[in-house]
Amino acid sequence: MKRLLSSLVVAIGLLAVGSAVAAPAAGAGSSSAGAVVDGVQFGYLPAGLGDSTDFAYEYDDVAFASRVWESGSDATGWQVDLKVDVMRGVGLRTGQALHDWFVEYQDRPPAEARYVRVRIHDHPGWACRDQVFWLVRPGLALSVRVDATRWTRPEALRIARAARVMPT
User: Fold this and answer.
1) How far apart are CA 13 and CA 52, in angstroms?
2) Is 123:65 a contact under the CB 8 Å cutoff?
3) Dihedral of CA 147/49/103/10: which sign?
4) CA–CA distances in Å: residue 85 to residues 27, 38, 74, 77
5) Residues 159 and 82 sit within 8 Å (Cβ to Cβ)
6) Among residues 128, 132, 44, which one has the least CA distance to residue 85?
7) How many alpha carbons fall within 13 Å on the CB side of residue 119?
8) What is the pLDDT of residue 36?
9) pLDDT surpassing 90 at residue 32
10) Mean pLDDT throughout 102-116?
11) What is the three-class DSSP state of 157?
12) Handedness of CA 90, 107, 96, 168 (dihedral sign)
């Protein structure tokens, strides 16, 4: 149900914006393959990810570049294995501004997502059992969310800590 809600939020965001783009990304993920999303290299991905699709959309003056890995089939149903977001917006200027905006954006029940402070590459961030989000620099934030039935907070943190902004 949580994955379905998350997928619906993405789909509604795509429909509401009207300028969204969805395109298939290259192949399934693996621990050695990594992925580049909007100039951010996610150097570690857990094994067993399904196929990926990229999305670009905007919400509340924040531009999103997202990649979603899903496994399953039309016959058995689909589930989100992993979702990474690269978020860019002037409102994401401090760790606290990101926290307040992101928690409201996610609109997850407190019992589902009790965020605790973490540091990712010495930047302010927050983690719950299936998600990590953090401020890379003013105007740039990242989020990693895993399927909590398959992976744990330490795995989400491992993905987050392997993320690097590529030089431009």
Assistant:
1) 18
2) no
3) negative
4) 18, 9, 25, 23
5) yes
6) 132
7) 3
8) 97
9) no
10) 92
11) helix
12) negative
Query: Which residue stretches of 71-152 are H helix?
Result: 95-106
* Mean model confidence pLDDT for the chain: 85
pLDDT reading at 14 higher than 80: no
Nearest to 89 by CA among 60, 116, 132: 60
Q: Could you tell me which of 125, 114, 135 has the C-alpha nearest to residue 157?
A: 125
pLDDT (mean) for 4-13: 41
Region 137-153: what's the mean pLDDT? 97
Give percent above pLDDT 90 in the chain. Answer: 76
- Retrieve residue 155's tokens: 């795995």
Q: Say if CB 52 and CB 68 are below 8 A apart.
A: yes
Instruction: List C-alpha distances in Å: 136 to 66, 122, 128.
Output: 16, 9, 18
Q: Write the CB contacts of 26 (distance below 8 Å, at least 6 apart in sequence).
A: 52
Do the beta carbons of residue 16 and residue 138 sit within 8 Å?
Answer: no
pLDDT digits (tens, 9 = 90+) for 36-80: 999 999 999 999 999 999 999 999 999 999 999 999 999 999 999
